[in-house]
Amino acid sequence: MPVKSNYVANATPLFSILSPGQCEEILFAAEEVLERTGVTVHDEEARDILKKAGCWLDGIRVRIPSAVVDRALNSVPKRVTLCNSRTGSRDVLLEGNNAYFGTGSDTPFTIDPYTGQRKRSTKQSVSWACKVIDALPNLDFVMSLGIVQDVPLLISDRHQFEAQVLNTGKPIVTTAHDIYGFADIIEMCEIIAGGEEELRRNPFMTLYAEPISPLQHAWEAASKLVLAARKGLPVVYTPCVMAGGTVPATMAGVLTNGLAESLSGLVINQATREGSPFIMGGVFTIMDMSSTIFSYGSPEFNLLMSALADMAHYLKLPMFGTAGCSDACVVDEQAGIEAALSIAMTALSGPNLNHDVGYIEYGSTSSLEYLTINNDVIGMARRLVRGIKVNDETLALDLIDKVGPGGHFLAEDHTMKYFKTETYYPELINRQRYDAWKEDGAKTLFQRANEKVKDIIENYQPEPLPADVQQKIRAVVERAEQKVR
Amino acid sequence: MTRSQYVRANYQVNATPQFHVLSEHQCEDIYYGALEALERTGAEVHSQTALRIFREGGCRVDGNRVRFPARLVERAVRSTPSRVVISDREGHRSMFLEGNNVYYGPGPTNTYTLDPFTGERRRPKKSDTVRAGIVCDALPNIAYAMDNGTPMDVTPTLADVHAFQALVENTVKPIIHWGFGIEQYQDIVDMAAAVTGSLEELQRNPFIILYSESSPPLRHSEEAIDKAIFAAKTDIPVIYTPCTFSGGVAPATMAGSLVISVADFLVGLVAGQLVREGASFIMGGLISTMDMSSSILSYGATELSLLSAGLTDVARYMKIPMFSTGGCTDSKVIDVQMGIEAAFSILIAGLSGANVVHDCNYMEYGATGSLELMVMDDEIIGMVKKILKGIEVDDEHLAVDVIDAVGPGGHFLGEMHTMAHFRDFWAPTLINRLRYDGWKAEGSKTMGQRVREKTQNIINTHEPERLPKDVLHRIQEVVDRAEAREAAKKISK
Amino acid sequence: MSNYFEDLAKSVIAGQQERVKELTRQALDAGTDPVEIINQGLIAGMNVVGARFKVGQMFVPEVLMSARAMNGGMDLVKPLLVGQELPSAGKVVLGTVKGDLHDIGKNLVGMMLESAGFTVVNLGVDAGPDKFLQAIKEHKPGVIGMSALLTTTMLSMKDTIEVLKEEGLRNKVKVIVGGAPISQDFAEEIGADGFAPDAASATDLCKKLLA
Lengths: 485, 493, 211
What we know:
Chain A is an alpha/beta fold. Chain A has 18 helices and 20 strands. Among the domains of chain A are: 75-254 and 270-386, Trimethylamine methyltransferase-like (TIM Barrel, Alpha-Beta Barrel); 392-422, no CATH class. In chain A, a hairpin with a 4-residue loop joins strand 19 and strand 20 (365-366). The radius of gyration of chain A is 24 Å and the shape is globular. Among the domains of chain B are: 77-388, TIM Barrel (Alpha-Beta Barrel); 395-424, no CATH class. Chain B has 18 helices and 19 strands. By secondary structure, chain C is α/β, with parallel strands linked by helices. Chain C has 2 domains: 2-80, Orthogonal Bundle (Methyltransferase, Methionine Synthase (B12-binding Domains), Chain A, domain 1), CATH 1.10.1240; 90-210, Cobalamin-binding domain (Rossmann fold, 3-Layer(aba) Sandwich). Chain C is 55% helix and 11% strand. Chain C has helices at residues 2-13, 17-29, 34-54, 60-77, 104-115, 129-139, 155-166, 184-189, 199-210, and strands at residues 90-96, 118-122, 143-147, 174-178, 194-195. In chain C, helix 5 (104-115) links the parallel strand 1 (90-96) and strand 2 (118-122). In chain C, helix 1 (2-13) packs across helix 3. Chain C starts with a helix and ends with a helix. Classes of the chains: A alpha/beta, B alpha/beta, C alpha/beta. The interface between A and C is medium-sized, with 24 and 18 residues. Strand 1 of chain A pairs antiparallel with strand 1 of chain B, so a sheet runs across the interface.
């Protein structure tokens, strides 16, 4: 076999929207916004922290010098690890271009897999969702796929977390109403991990918080950033911006404004405690100027997501992305199209923690069938990203010569050795011949997905938490209930 | 923000998204692998005409086996034009097959069609090809026409000729067309020349591309290679496209499949360039994986996209225009799977920068052609084209001044900046963004239902530009001549 | 004169504020009744805009440009309406409920209502029952509209309705609600008069409730 020199190979496909020069321009523009326009911070403690860090305060308006932003960018860890709560194994390494996929969180509605009806999400619907996520191999982390609404709403976040952690061992990205809810959830996590230090060393949970666009940090959000830093636990901070609505209509302007929101959140977090794990988020999309929805399926949404991933890699920040979601009100062809585009582009770009798989109706409703279908789409995208290996063994010139013109490769050892690893075999996507498919009931992909969802709900058992741990978690939820009664 | 006092130096931008599966070195490896296979293993050629051309051209011919010296193949690659321009039926230069320009359209010769009115899967008729012409003509993101199914209610050996007649009479867009053999090719070229006025005019401004498929590994039937030779002789652009599926007619490894595909294309190319140096050839590549359970050639697999994009990288390395695949599915029904597979392959084909992306109508692993899928693909192509435009980064688009004017907690809806730019947003027509209540009020339709309505509406109302009477008459004469020829053959048998 | 009105309406539709002002001035100089200018020119134009938006022929920024153009004309006409009521489709008090800073949707509703000829009092964000109560006493609106994005803050809508009942004001004003987690069922459950899923239907809803 010959030895080569000066050989450059694409180990994976190379894909980028922005050049490093363009990333730099956007960073500078965002820093200019922070220095000149600033943000509002609706939390006194956070304002004090910012002031001490060298920011300029004018009432609740805070302007951030670029030096302070740069300092935060230097102190933030470039990688964050999340674990499985049952096995403790460090499964999710948020670093570089690793792309992991998970669900989204607080949809008010969900589609009942048994009746097909759209209904308000409940503790049971969240429990089912988490079971399904736990069972699907291409889903790496969990968000609740619904707001629990059949419990007292003011403490529904505790119920929501309980429903999640009882039904899956996969890492959880959790929302909380405020720092009190967050504190209770952390307490539950510490019970499971076996202590504060243990949880910090091997976190299986990260908190989710978001600023309000444009350029506002509400009390809930800012105080969560402070608490996460104090606890040394990772936090996802994710601006949800609408081009033409809450940010400019131009894509570069969207990125500038969104990034300014992220970076000011980062500064609050790092100024509280340098080195705190922080994951930059961003659901950047357009406002549909006809229906006024926040679009989860537009091509601009995909472009912005990939561009932000380029930014995150340029800044060396772990990133929280978005994919596998749709504006369609029903799981139809459109839902398939939008999932394919967003999952393929996300996998190619490599933001790290990609949520909202399973969202339909522009994020208002979740569907377990859609989630299950997207498990296949993620598999497809991952195969794409593995790319093409070129070497003497894969070029197979000897084999080609051996088989010769007009022959076939079906019975070759080489084929046996490679056909499974070189090819991705989806589970629900159907490749049967027409007659066989018809004989099997001529089912659509949705029907096959619905069967699989029901099968998981009825037959799959996630690894349970020990009974005493379950009891202690219950006690935390009940304590919260007492307080609101 | 006024920063006009300075110009940024040494600034490189991505004018569009950047996407490459293979590095230049990897492309070189695939290309050299193909040269080695042709020199060492060679190809089986079943045409006396082709064997003579190869022998006279300097190839080593041993019975049906032809081995190709690398210098000969490289010379053929060098003499092939790196760009081919295709006009529409009216002579407007409309498809520039060069660089990374991407054009999408349907594919040919399906053995079934999905009737957009009855929902029935049935054998295609000539009237279905008429519909295909009309729908191709109407859709803005479909750049050219192909037949969407072999018509089976005509003389079987002239299905190609009848299909061409149906297309050319119902669309002004360029037509990519197949034929059973060179007699039918001659009929098709004569019909096209009737439209342009003369063969010379057709050669200068071709609005057709001929299409020939070979069957790997390294095997070329008389029909396949003779059609490539005919196209070169007649000086009409041709797509030579081996139908490669890994694990079946090529190694199970992706790189090995690319080697087979490139090598088989080069066999046709060498024949064509030996006949006429500088003949326009487009590298085909229907390339995917064989599903080892159902043994279909998968049109929905991720490997189709990956391999096609890899092959496109090699075509770019060879500086030869590329014919790729996308917008197709293995699904037997209009469903979520169809949407997923069509979107996935249209995206990757677009990112790869292949010049012609065909099969935006193929369902059931290519067995059935669907106009509804083509209509759905038209929408997906619109989305993907928006993605391919990338993101502009300059002071106007960064909008730092606007952000400052609006300030924290404001909104941008009434800004002149928004007014000036919101129309850059891609505007959906079949994708639904109504709110739940609005969607329900409009009948809770799925995208499949909306697609069907639009398809029916196009067929019922779209009026393509008609050909002049005398041209129609001359086209009919060619068809009649072909019918008489086939009838005579039958009698002589 | 009908040409004046037609031109005026067209300029409103096209969102040409300067042209609208110029035409309004011309009409006034020619002695046209200000109320006619409003009804047959400015409002007539906005009515077309509203209809076109509903069928997807016009988009939000264009509607707002038209509203801006209309207001340019209104500002010239208003001072001349001495003693006459400014023609209004009705008065609406809007606010994003207590604890919630998400107000883009509510602002959009406000702008759409204004473009349809309503008088809008915008209470901004973080508006609790007291703020609504005070606004009702002060402005005497026909409708109050509350918006929320969060399931926790949407509970505040019910509180406001309860306070209105206690104060004996519930029958004097219509209450409408909207926002991502809100549905028709929820609106009924808390005793609101209506729910609108988007800004355009909020306008229709107000028209219906005040008819």
